[in-house]
Design goal:
The complex is a heterodimer of chains A (about 450) and B (about 250). Chain A has about 450 residues and is mostly helical. Chain A has 2 domains: about 45-200, no CATH class; about 220-445, MetI-like fold, CATH 1.10.3720. Chain A has 17 helices and 6 strands. Chain A has helices at about 1-45, 50-60, 65-95, 95-120, 130-135, 140-150, 180-190, 190-195, 220-250, 255-270, 275-285, 295-320, 325-330, 335-365, 370-375, 395-405, 415-445; strands at about 45-50, 150-155, 165-170, 200, 210, 215. In chain A, strand 2 and strand 3 form a beta hairpin. In chain A, helix 9 runs antiparallel to helix 14. Chain A is elongated. In chain A, about 40% of the residues are buried. Chain B is built from 10 helices and 10 strands. Chain B has helices at about 45-55, 85-90, 105-115, 120-135, 135-140, 155-165, 185-195, 210-215, 235-240, 245-250; strands at about 5-15, 20-30, 35-40, 65-70, 75, 90-95, 170-175, 200-205, 220-225, 225-230. Chain B is globular. The chains are: A mainly alpha (about 450), B alpha/beta (about 250). The interface between A and B is medium-sized, with 23 and 31 residues.
Chain lengths: ~450, ~250
């Protein structure tokens, strides 16, 4: 009786533990993927301002010129009182040296904030950079810029025992009695009329090229680069991997040499990916000279090498799992070994091979280190069909890192970073989902 | 054993797994067009001997043969022989039904497609003819495109027989073809063997002595790799010459 109940208890403890670990995994996944998904969706779906619609019209020629023109007229009229106040205050500054000394520096900060928020001031000369030609395209960014215009960053040193504390003080107190004062009310209460935010679904984020270092536009160059690198890796990796697997499973006789070969393959799968990148650069670019510099070709070859061990092992397992009875049946009918492999064994092993292939594709799509050395550039044109293999390319994983660490204005393009992360995760998940569906389909066909 | 018109002749034929002999020094002659059963206790080398005839033992590492096994005036184990051509002439049916995971049609058509370039129509005729000979046509004629694994076990085994017949072999080797089947399916396979007698030389390994006595013309009794007795089935079952044969038949060992 005792042993029975303790066995029962153990049983419950084990199933409890496994539920717990599964729950933990799901929670971890949600914690990681949740923010990426929510913020990444922000790249596709957000409150776009009139400046966004103007940009899309001018650069991509999408949208009705007439309607956007009308809307722009309305927005400009709403901005006029603000600009009026600024013009008047600038005239006062010009004429009053005391005022200039007191507020000239601060006003320049205010001016910059307004430029960032609404685009160039009507009396500005035409700016060079695209990011200075338009106001804020996204309402969430506009609100941050609005705060920058309305408040002034100051440091509070009143407590000598502590470091200075950053505080935001309203800017308007300094301008009481000046002709700029009405501008603050305008900015605070009529910003929506000046920018006319509207919920926008920007699905073309995926297929639009980027402009001015990702301040505008989408991520097509990165998406296309990732797709090309991944497909290239498959193109080079799968035939080699499959043939090796066939050799290992069907032709090779076990011996010391085979043992050594297996150790090599297993070791290869444990090599850090940055080493693959270094090797790819040294071998494919410098030694073989497949291209003069970084290129999709060199990157694909390196990624192919990286996924080769996984491909070989998955395919070999799948081939070995084919019942020996099929092999015997084919041989007994007078099929040669090669014929048996191509007509009976490979079709039966197909689900396993496909799964291995697609999963390693997911790995290739997300790898960063190998392509830093061999293919990826921070900014670049989307690949052109004629120079598909010889061009270097931006790619999602590398540019995700690049944009969030080395970009000049990391804060301004958060939405692009999250959008890229979401797209990459979605791409890999889609690949894995495709693997599952494909496998189910093929094995259903095999089972009859 | 003398035979008037032998199809396969063994002379001092032995098979080894590495050093271990599995079949020791057997000599026999298999009569053309007859059904010959090989019986004996488990592990006595029946299957090994059967699989030697179409050299399926080649697939087993460390397996080698000595002596002569003559088929059509050629030694089956002659290194110069074309194994693929040999296996085309000597078909085989296995213990467990092993249709390919393909359609019924593609299963039967597998051999013909391999060896001859037939037109679509000729191929269809060959498939129908083979399925008819395997007494399966009426059951599957409407589901030729269906996956063969959807058939019942007995149907699958008859499909495997049809698949073997489709390449027009001269000899049919059957390695315990009914051991995985229920009695009804077993009965149909036995009926089929009776129908095929004469058209093909059939060599069947069986555990079931009633089956051997029902279907075969000749029976060989193998014990620990040695051929103890070989003779017409009726004689062997009713008046065994050897003591060990009698003991086995009466169930004293095995």
């Amino acid at each position: 009786m005792r042993s029975f109940s303790s066995r029962h208890l153990l049983d419950h403890a084990f199933s409890g533990l496994s539920y717990l670990s599964i729950g933990f995994m799901v929670a971890a996944l949600l914690v990681i993927l949740g923010p990426i998904a929510i913020r990444g969706i922000g790249a596709y779906c957000f409150r776009g301002t009139i400046e966004f619609r103007l940009f899309v019209l001018e650069r991509f020629h999408r949208g009705s010129a007439e309607r956007i023109g009308e809307e722009l007229q309305v927005a400009r009229r709403a901005r006029e009182p603000l600009y009026e106040a600024m013009r008047a205050f600038e005239a006062d500054l010009e004429n009053d040296p005391a005022l200039r000394r007191k507020l000239g520096g601060d006003y320049r900060q205010f001016q910059t904030a307004v430029r960032e928020l609404l685009g160039p001031l009507p009396w500005d000369p035409a700016p060079l950079l695209m990011r200075q030609q338009y106001g804020q395209t996204r309402w969430d960014r506009a609100l941050i810029k609005q705060r920058k215009a309305l408040y002034r960053e100051e440091w509070d040193y009143s407590d000598p025992s502590r470091m200075g504390v950053q505080v935001w003080r309203p800017r308007r107190v300094h301008y009481q009695g000046t002709r700029l004062e009405p501008a603050f009310d305008q900015l605070e209460h009529r910003l929506a009329e000046m920018l006319r935010p509207r919920w926008t679904f920007y699905g073309r984020f995926l297929t639009d090229p980027s402009f001015d270092a990702h301040f505008f536009g989408g991520i097509w160059a990165e998406v296309l680069g990732t797709l090309c690198l991944t497909l290239g890796a498959m193109l080079f990796g799968v035939p080699v991997g499959l043939l090796s697997a066939i050799y290992l499973a069907e032709y090779a006789t076990e011996g010391r040499l085979m043992h050594l070969l297996r150790i090599f393959i297993n070791t290869l799968s444990g090599v850090p990916s940055i080493v693959f990148g270094l090797f790819g650069m040294a071998f494919f670019i410098h030694t073989l000279g497949v291209t003069d510099s970084k290129s999709v070709l060199a990157g694909s070859l390196t990624l192919a090498l990286l996924i080769l061990p996984t491909l070989i092992r998955a395919s070999e397992e799948a081939i070995r799992a084919v019942p020996a009875a099929y092999r015997e049946a084919a041989f007994s009918l007078g099929a040669s070994r090669w014929h048996t492999v191509t007509t009976v064994i490979l079709p039966a092993a197909l689900p396993g091979i496909l799964t291995g292939t697609v999963i390693s594709l997911g790995r290739a799509a997300g790898e960063t280190a190998p392509i830093i050395f061999t293919a990826a550039v921070s900014l670049g044109e989307p690949l052109a069909w004629r120079r598909l293999l010889t061009m270097p390319t931006p790619a999602l994983p590398w540019n995700l890192y690049n944009l969030s660490t080395e970009h000049a204005a990391v804060d301004e393009i958060r939405h692009v970073q999250y959008g890229m992360a979401l797209t990459l995760v979605a791409l890999v998940l889609a690949l894995n989902l495709a693997a599952i569906l494909l496998r189910a389909r093929v094995s259903r066909k095999l089972r009859g | 054993m003398k035979s008037s018109n032998p199809h396969v002749v063994a002379r001092q034929f032995s098979i080894y797994y590495h050093r271990q002999p599995a079949v020791k020094n057997v000599s026999f002659a298999i009569e053309r067009g007859a059904v010959t059963a090989i019986i004996g206790p488990s592990g006595c080398g029946k299957s090994t001997l059967l699989r030697a005839v179409n050299r399926m033992n080649d697939l087993i590492p460390g397996c080698r043969a000595e002596g002569e096994l003559i088929f059509d005036e050629e030694n089956i184990y002659d290194p110069a022989i074309d194994v693929v051509a040999l296996r085309r002439r000597i078909g085989m049916v296995f213990q467990k039904p092993n249709p390919f995971p393909k359609s019924v049609f593609d299963n039967v058509a597998y051999g013909p497609r391999l060896h001859s370039r037939l037109s679509r129509q000729e191929l269809e005729e060959r498939v129908e003819q083979s399925l008819r000979r395997a007494a399966l046509w009426d059951e599957v004629k409407d589901r030729l495109r269906q996956n063969a694994l959807a058939l019942s076990g007995g149907q699958q085994q008859r499909l495997c027989i049809a698949r073997a017949l489709a390449v027009n072999p001269e000899i049919l080797l059957m390695d315990e073809p009914t051991s995985a089947l229920d009695p009804r399916a077993t009965g149909r396979i036995e009926d089929l063997i009776a129908e095929l007698r004469g058209a093909y030389t059939i060599l069947i390994v069986t555990h079931n002595m009633q089956q051997a006595s029902r279907v075969s013309d000749y029976t060989a009794f193998l014990y620990e790799g040695e051929l103890i007795e070989w003779g017409p089935t009726r004689d062997l079952f009713t008046r065994p010459k050897e003591k060990r044969t009698e003991d086995y038949l009466t169930g004293r060992f095995g």
